[in-house]
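Entry 12.
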Amino acid sequence: MTIDWQPSCSLELLQLRAAVLHTARMYFYEQKVLEVETPILCHSIGTDPYLDFFRTDFEEKPLYLQTSPEFSMKRLLAGGVGSCYQITKSFRQGEVGRYHNPEFTMLEWYRVGFDLSALMKDVEDLLCPLLHNTGFNGPVERWAYVDVFQKYTSLNPLQFSLPAYLAVAERFNCFDAYQLCGEDHSLWLDFLFSLCVQNELGKKGVCMIYNYPACLPSLARLNKENNLLSERVEIFVNGIEMGNGYFELADAVEQEMRFEREIDLRKQNKSMVVNKDARFLAALNSGLPDCSGIAIGVDRLLMVLSGKEKIADVLAFSIENA
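Predicted 3D structure (tokens):
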């Protein structure tokens, strides 16, 4: 029996990964942002209704491989650690494909005192030098979600009209959209964005989409001037989503309400039952400083830098030969 033991990627890719991580660490060192390390295996997990996770047991109690270090890092922020970053492994069940591996590397950071605009400038300062010698070194684009969504769909994402949304899906030859999205506005927005908009973003460089509709808030604050919008940004290069960031929600009551809504959705979807992260909520209740944070997928960034078509091509060992 022949066993395939060889690495998934080349030595050059391993060296590129090391160089990118070194550059990130030097950037944050110069910015006086502290590198931290938090547990990968925790007693709680996020409630996102569209993310699955890995569970194990310890002393007859469940433990979860984290889909992101976000909650633990925010507990550090509430504890007074100040601006911090982390390079860590994250895990998501059932995600395998061109851009997905169940185990992946995430660069996540939080800047105390930064609003969303300052965070976007931070992302630009980190990513643009890395992309300098690639075909994606053009000027950074910034688009409000409403504007870019209307440009490629002719729809107003703040107003839900099922017939209009169906017509756009059918124009793109997607005739099963209603079966996928039903009458859920947020599902329709994600579906049409990925279908009509995303591939057009970042063809020449970094593209930032900000001020998402309030029905897609995740862990972001609502915009003070317009509560139909949330203080959220996503980063795209060559049509690939690189990262997701927020002006972070600090209201423990609002956060708990969002958890409860997501848990209800998980029950409707017949997903694995989860509980609210009590330690995270307690940290928010004690006081999270005003901050913005973002997570960047390191493996996807390496795909762009190396011109590789599959995430497996930039991993030392993909899930197929781990």
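Annotation: The chain has a mean pLDDT of 96. The two ends are 18 Å apart (CA to CA).
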